[in-house]
Amino acid sequence: MKRTILYDWHKKHGELIDFNGWEMPVRYTSINEEHLAVRNNWGIFDVSHMGRYFVSGSDAQAFLDYLVPRDIKAVKESQAAYTFMLNEQAGFKDDLIITKFDQDNFLVVCNAGNREKIWNWMKQHAENRDVTLTDKSNSVMIAAQGPNARETLAKITNDELPKRFRTGYITLNGIKVLFSGTGYTGEDGGEITIFAEDVDDLTKRATELWEKFVELGAKPCGLGARDTLRMEVGYPLYGNDIDETTHVLESGLAFKPFMVKDKEPGYIGKQAVLEKEGKIERFRVMFKLLKRGVPRHGYKVIIDGEEKGVVTSGTMSPLTKDCFGMAYVPISHKEPGSKFFVDIRGRLIEAEVLDGPIYKK
Fold it and tell me: By the number of CB atoms within 10 A of the CB, which of 246, 267, 310, 334 ranks highest?
């Protein structure tokens, strides 16, 4: 299995699992404890397994504008923008963050399981364009998340921390890093990337920074808490809630600024988006169970005694103790207050569609 640069620290302190071919920490203490630390204080996650690709050249902006449905021209300099790459059928190649340094220089961050696929997809479409692709994934990326994250990080820098969805190079504890005001938990904070060319010894310096965060009160968190945190705020996980077979109009993500459906001159998947508009048959919703039971990925949605959908993510909230999840249901049941049943190992538990996530900042 692949390992991040912080692997030795994780092996010494955490419980490791196979995640998309990466040996990653699932937890250090307990998922609940780590989850609540992020909601009430701050926590850190090693997200170095994600892909990081620089896109540069005079055609860089037009290139990315064609690859994604978001209006990249409208993204401001030093802004980090959430969007996705679609296939020709308007299914998800991946969801990702694109940072615009200027109109000729960008950073694309994709999911770990899609690194090779996105790299090859970009290379394929970069042919005959003035675009240079540089793989910077051999770096360290740490997510610092929680209500006290920014306040604490400010103590170890003389620079101003970039705000929400803004990006910039700063010096943190004496180390040059790229700081992005992004994250996957619904909390404030940021994602910190250390590139090999900016330090003399990447492993040593990254471990020093990680341990400095722990010294300052950050709770090391694994993939388990990362999953429950993102579910509470309704963020989809690639491979669970969206994939190549999920039409973007079904996903609940097809709105500005993430995408501009009729954007000109166009983007991959645009024709499939316009042809399907107003004709989708299912939709991703957030739901809460009305009785005890934990919904899990793959559980059946039952309506009028028949299987009519599927749960894609589910858990019990460590914060609210609600049993909740996401599911694809018929359009007839997408509105808040709609009811259906979830088949939990042969027990039909009633569920209600919510008007938003379980947790709202």
Answer: 267
Q: Are residues 318 and 358 in the same domain?
A: yes
* In-domain check, residue 345: yes
Residues with pLDDT less than 50, the chain: none
Residue 152 shares a structural domain with residue 197: yes
Quick one: 41 and 147 in the same domain? yes
Number of domains forming the structure of the chain: 3
62 and 35 in a single domain? The answer is no
On whether both 75 and 99 belong to a single domain, the answer is yes
Distance CA 245, CA 142 (A): 31
pLDDT of residue 361: 83
pLDDT of residue 359: 97
What is the pLDDT at residue 347?
97
**Domain stop point among 211, 230, 249:** 230
Domain that holds residue 293: 281-361
SS (H, E, C) the chain: CECCCCHHHHHHHCEEEEECCEEEEEECCCHHHHHHHHHHCCEEEECCCCEEEEEECCCHHHHHHHHCCCCHHHCCCCEEEEEEEECCCCEEEEEEEEEEEECCEEEEEECHHHHHHHHHHHHHHHCCCCCEEEECCCCEEEEEECCCHHHHHHHHCCCCCCCECEEEEEEECCEEEEEEECCCCCCCEEEEEECHHHCCCHHHHHHHHHHHHHHCCCEECCHHHHHHHHHHCCCCCECCCECCCCEHHHCCCCCCCCCCCCCCCCCCCHHHHHHHCCCCCEEEEEEEECCCCCCCCCCEEEECCEEEEEEEEEEECCCCCCEEEEEEEEHHHCCCCCEEEEEECCEEEEEEECCCCCCCC
Inter-residue contact 330 to 259 (CB < 8 Å)? no
CB-CB neighbours of 35 under 10 Å: 26
- Is residue 248 one of the residues assigned to a domain? no
Q: What is the pLDDT of residue 234?
A: 98
Same domain, 39 and 60: no
Do 325 and 302 lie in one domain? The reply is yes
pLDDT at 231: 98
Average pLDDT of the chain is 98
Q: What percent of the chain has pLDDT over 70?
A: 100
